[in-house]
């Protein structure tokens, strides 16, 4: 016998139509964030870059006719910030009058507006700031944290600290930083390697491992400064440290070299932060080049692109540890099926009014809708150029 259950339709959900909205205003801001101490990784020690003293941010704020707002950002370290801002100024007008919900279509529209400068790098990094703002707006309008809008697998993500272990920092200070980091509730420690003297790296790592003990997750990052034979030798020497991963052992575009190294080591190999599009990450995945991929949403064109890559990465059972910009990546990592890592940097904190909750080794998705961040007065004070398009409602 078939039993039928009758329910009364909920009229509020069966009547009426979804309201369409349109973008009426944008504000682009170029913000120069000064760093307290000049920062050096292996790229400085090999003479390829100067110590970093500031980070350039491109913020995009978007408002709709109905008064919904979103804020997103992209960034550049060392050169490139003014170029991202200039490209954003040229393409911003294309969003006026558009429905902010159609994010994929709008991303494509912005790419075609600047098609002659390509689908990777600086051009799509400028688009990323618009894309992130559109996702923030969509989640805010839904009244949901972005992770929930995307579909979260967890409400917190394992986090590790990078900023305490740079190469310019004396070892004693690195040990003090590690103690402070773990005391603040962060779960893992990453140490920069790739010093021209490999023995220096190994001695420093020995000191850190002894200091934090065998059970604390520990990673190293060579910032692309080893050649293939050096990466092989160092990789073998590093096996005994039981590392979570070895990051950027080789040039970011050496997919075949990474694949050979990853196949020969027990320690997982991580890379991908320097790649500037999903297509470049596809090359890594095709070569089985990494156990852990480290995409950076602002660098590959925004959240829309990151989600395409995350789907592909899951299909290949890859681990995920997004690079930098924890304010965005916490949400994206929370929505990745395989337990990921988020990189903790406190550098961006002065730009926002809100702080992320961190304890027991994990970073927590807040209950605030969208990304959950508003721009601080300090971010306004560090704004060096600004452009508005349209009229704020
Ligand atoms: Mg790195």
Automatic annotation (TrEMBL):
The keyword Electron transport does not apply. Signal peptide: none annotated. Its cofactor is Mg(2+). GO terms for molecular function: galactarate dehydratase activity; L-altrarate dehydratase activity; magnesium ion binding. It comes from the Bacteria. Gene3D superfamilies: Enolase-like C-terminal domain, Enolase-like, N-terminal domain. Pfam families: MR_MLE_C, MR_MLE_N. Coiled coil: none annotated. Binds 1 Mg(2+) ion per subunit. One of its GO terms (biological process) is carbohydrate catabolic process. The record marks 296 as: Increases basicity of active site His. Keywords: Magnesium, Metal-binding. This is L-talarate/galactarate dehydratase.
């Amino acid at each position: 016998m078939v039993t039928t259950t009758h329910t009364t339709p909920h009229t509020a959900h069966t009547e009426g139509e979804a309201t369409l909205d349109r973008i009426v205003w944008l504000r682009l801001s170029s913000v120069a964030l000064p760093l307290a101490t000049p920062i050096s990784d292996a790229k400085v020690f090999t003479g390829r870059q100067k110590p970093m003293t500031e980070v350039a941010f491109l913020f995009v704020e978007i408002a709709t006719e109905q008064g919904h707002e979103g804020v997103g950002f992209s960034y550049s370290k060392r050169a490139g910030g003014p170029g991202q801002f200039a490209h954003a100024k040229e393409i911003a007008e294309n969003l006026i009058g558009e429905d902010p919900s159609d994010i994929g279509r709008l991303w494509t529209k912005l790419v075609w507006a600047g098609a002659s400068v390509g689908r990777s790098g600086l051009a799509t990094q400028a688009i990323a700031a618009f894309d992130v703002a559109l996702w923030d707006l969509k989640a805010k309008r839904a009244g949901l944290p972005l992770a929930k809008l995307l579909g979260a697998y967890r409400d917190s993500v394992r986090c590790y600290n990078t900023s305490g272990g740079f190469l310019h920092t004396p070892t004693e200070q690195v040990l003090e930083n590690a103690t402070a980091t773990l005391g603040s509730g962060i779960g893992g420690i990453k140490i920069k390697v790739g010093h021209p003297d490999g023995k220096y790296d190994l001695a420093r790592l020995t000191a850190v491992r002894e200091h934090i003990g065998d059970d604390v997750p520990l990673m190293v990052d060579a910032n692309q400064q080893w050649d293939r034979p050096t990466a092989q030798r160092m990789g073998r020497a590093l096996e005994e440290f039981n590392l979570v991963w070895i990051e950027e052992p080789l040039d970011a575009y050496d997919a075949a070299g990474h694949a050979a190294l990853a196949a020969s080591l027990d320690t997982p190999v991580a890379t991908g932060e320097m790649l500037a599009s999903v297509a470049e990450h596809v090359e890594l995945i095709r070569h089985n080049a990494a156990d852990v991929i480290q995409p950076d949403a602002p660098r590959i064109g925004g959240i829309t692109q990151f989600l395409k890559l995350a789907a592909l990465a899951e299909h290949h059972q890859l681990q995920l540890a997004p690079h930098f910009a924890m304010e965005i990546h916490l949400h994206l990592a929370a929505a990745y099926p395989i337990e990921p890592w988020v990189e903790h940097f406190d550098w961006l904190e002065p730009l926002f009014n809100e702080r992320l909750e961190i304890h027991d080794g994990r970073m927590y998705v807040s209950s605030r809708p969208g990304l959950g961040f508003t721009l601080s007065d300090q971010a306004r004070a560090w704004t060096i150029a600004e452009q508005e398009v349209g009229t704020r409602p």
